[in-house]
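User: Just a sanity check before I run the rest of the batch. Below are the structure tokens for the first item. I only need the designed sequence back.
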């Protein structure tokens, strides 16, 4: 088998998107591992892998990937929202609320605002 090329990584990334859409998150993770090994700075690939980890109930790897994305892009509202969902699913509601509220502050989408629950009085 030949060495992967940048084109191969793009193909793998697109295939991973399709696998995630087809509800095969573990297959998506496998494809993205080689992409991220070759391009560790690729935030889009890391975000997609974090989503795949989340969808396959691998909460700790998902949390770590979302945090890494946020270290590089602290204003990424979706990453805050997805990290919040991961924390919520892991039974950490206080940490989740903080990230839900950051997501809503960065991007006041209705789903982000609803999840932030600003009206319940929690700090």
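Assistant: Here's the designed sequence for the first item:
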């Amino acid at each position: 088998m030949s060495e992967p090329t940048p084109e191969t990584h793009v193909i793998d990334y697109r295939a991973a998107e399709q696998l995630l859409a087809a509800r095969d998150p573990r297959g998506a993770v496998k494809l993205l591992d080689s992409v991220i090994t070759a391009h560790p700075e690729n935030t889009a690939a890391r975000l997609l892998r974090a989503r795949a980890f989340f969808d396959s109930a691998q909460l700790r790897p998902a949390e770590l990937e979302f945090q890494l994305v946020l270290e590089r892009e602290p204003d990424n509202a979706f990453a805050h929202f997805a990290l919040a969902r991961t924390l919520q699913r892991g039974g950490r509601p206080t940490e989740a609320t903080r990230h839900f509220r950051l997501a809503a502050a960065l991007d006041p989408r209705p789903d982000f605002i609803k999840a932030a629950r600003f009206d319940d009085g929690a700090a």
